[in-house]
Amino acid sequence: MTIRVLLADDQAMVRTGFRYMLEAEEGIEVAGEAGDGLEALRLAGELRPDVVLMDIRMPGVDGLEATRRLAGPGVADPLKVVVVTTFDLDEYVHAALEGGAVGFLLKDAGPALLIEAVRAAARGDALVAPNITVRLLKHFARPARTPRRPEEEARRQGLTERELDTVRAVAEGLTNTEAAERLFVSLSTVKTHLASVQAKLHARNRVEIAAWAYRSGLMDTEGSASG
């Protein structure tokens, strides 16, 4: 199946570069280009692309607001939005993910990571640039103090031990395939665990699952146990 991508960036040269990188890959095509947020919203509604690559700083409606309108809480049929920006600011990352984005990359991430993020979004996974992920989650997900021990919080949410193992893998940034290899289970089992976890935690995507893992102190427990 061909992945149809909408490019939203106010710089024509950036859109041209992304188009060149994406269309060099088999199974990916650029369905349209938008030079500002309003045009991105219009084209997204008309084209219903599989993935939207969204810049943040654009005239009119900025990329964060456009992302909220396309993928945020309450959107009936959300699109898969990956934010790609020049600005490595935690506030932007947090706002993008809170707004429903399933990925966050910097424009200098390179073609391999860009393509990986598009494919991940299309299949329902999330990809945040590795140099941002842990810093982001630790900074924004940890409360002033954890009200319960992680195990108590997990039990309160009804998570099984196997589901907790899957949550840890997700919080470390592993893909479904990598999680399956680590846990010695099938890929379909990992997907089943994630669907169950998502329902129990009321999480919209795996980024929110990972945030819960850090917020609950689960990753602190893992880190201290491993050394």
UniProtKB/TrEMBL annotation:
Provenance organism: Nocardiopsis suaedae
Pfam hit, one: GerE
PROSITE patterns membership: HTH_LUXR_2, RESPONSE_REGULATORY
SUPFAM superfamilies the record matches: CheY-like
Gene3D superfamilies: 3.40.50.2300
SMART domains: HTH_LUXR, REC
Keyword tags: DNA-binding, Phosphoprotein, Transcription, Transcription regulation
Tagged with keyword Ribosomal protein: no
HTH luxR-type domain: residues covered: 152-217
4-aspartylphosphate PTM positions: D55
Protein origin, superkingdom: Bacteria
Protein name: Response regulator transcription factor
UniProt signal peptide: none
Response regulatory domain segment(s): 4-122
